[in-house]
Design brief:
Layout: E1 2-3, E2 6-7, E3 20-27, E4 35-43, E5 52-58, E6 67-69, E7 75-78, H1 80-85, H2 90-94, H3 110-113
Amino acid sequence: AIKAGLPEGADLGIDPRKTWRVAGTSLRHKYAEPLTVEVEVGNGGVGNHTFYVLTIRRAASMGHHMLVADRQGRLHHITQDLATALGSTVHALQANGTPNAMEALLPEPFAQMH
């Protein structure tokens, strides 16, 4: 088998127990401005199963207005500051886990188009 372009058993000179960190890296989402992050790469493998775990953390403090949603539009986490800015409560915005709850945050006509 060939891994990373080298024959099986070739010494890559990499310690699988080591964690690599890169600070001051910029990450850019398609619809957002670049964000300074710290990237950490560590070994997550067990036994013969080798893989790497990539952890990306924001370098700056976390935002006060944060929302976490899933693919169905259910709101799993909303900061109190964001709920207050939207004139609502965290519980009301989460809508008891109702799918498409995020549509309620969009103004018309965008809510209908979504």
